[in-house]
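Exercise 7b. Backbone tokens:
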């Protein structure tokens, strides 16, 4: 991870998302809102905003529709607001619930016709922070990875986020390996360090260095959102199962390609499928390549 971040150019103006439906979770603020705005300006026909608060989601919807460029190039755009119930397993913003959502969407997206230039795509927001994971320090792979990293007695504010982003990268890569010939693209991107309020809820001893880092090298929200637009709506099948940084396919953190890391990843894949199937039987009907 270099100190200076590569500039992310604007999405090519000839990119045309007419006729496409896009769902964005966390779309009323920050990167999510800015990505929604950019996608509408690229003429996305239907946009679904997944938000915690309907009131804030409706406010975001009105702000998006009031944008002068959206009104000019995409006046017929339809925006719907759906609430995320944080008590509901399906809606909790974490690794497992996003895995479940991805698995349940696969059959529906597989039956969706691809356009001449783009396949149906699921994009996870990962992070370069995966490189700071603590997995290599484990004396051995735990009998249950999910139980070990869900145990509040073993929680660490310093490593939980990097570890969760390592899980994301491993899951997306495993999915690409077990579903190689899919009509659907599933990828994982890092937007880089972006000037948002994402760190405001961190403990103060973490907020201080993170805020300093953000002040010195952060991308603007507009620039950061371009990475989401690229991964979800511009990149093609070559990114299936891949990690994207700076709008390029990139390597996962080193641990993922060690012997232990590969074993950890395959166990995580199996456990994730089992856990998701215990919540929704439809997961059991999915077919995978060994």
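Sequence design result:
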């Amino acid at each position: 991870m270099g100190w200076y971040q590569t500039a992310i150019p604007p999405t090519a103006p000839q990119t045309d998302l007419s006729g496409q439906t896009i769902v964005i979770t966390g779309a009323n603020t920050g990167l999510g809102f800015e990505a929604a705005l950019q996608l509408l300006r690229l003429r996305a026909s239907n946009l679904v905003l997944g938000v915690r608060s309907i009131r804030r989601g409706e406010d975001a919807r009105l702000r998006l529709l009031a944008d002068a460029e959206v009104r000019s190039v995409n006046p017929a755009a339809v925006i719907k607001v759906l609430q995320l119930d944080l008590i509901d397993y399906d809606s909790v913003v974490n690794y497992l619930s996003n895995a479940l959502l991805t698995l349940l969407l696969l059959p529906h997206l597989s039956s969706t016709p691809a356009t001449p230039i783009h396949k149906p795509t699921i994009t996870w927001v990962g992070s370069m922070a995966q490189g700071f994971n603590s997995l290599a320090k484990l004396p051995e792979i735990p009998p249950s990875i999910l139980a070990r990293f869900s145990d509040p007695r073993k929680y660490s504010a310093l490593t939980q986020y990097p570890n969760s982003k390592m899980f994301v990268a491993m899951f997306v890569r495993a999915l690409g390996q077990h579903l190689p010939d899919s009509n659907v693209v599933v990828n994982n991107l890092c937007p880089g360090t972006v000037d948002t309020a994402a760190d405001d809820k961190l403990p103060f001893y973490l907020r201080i260095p993170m805020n300093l880092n953000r002040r010195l090298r952060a991308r603007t929200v507009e620039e950061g959102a371009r990475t989401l637009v690229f991964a979800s709506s511009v990149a093609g099948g070559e990114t299936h199962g891949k990690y994207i940084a700076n709008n390029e396919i990139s390597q996962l953190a080193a641990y993922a390609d060690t012997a232990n890391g590969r074993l950890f990843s395959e166990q995580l894949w199996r456990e994730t499928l089992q856990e998701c199937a215990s919540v929704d039987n439809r997961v059991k009907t999915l077919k995978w390549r060994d």
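Instructor comment: Strands lie at 21-25, 46-51, 78-83, 121-125, 185-190, 243-245, 248-250. The first strand starts at residue 21 and ends at 25.
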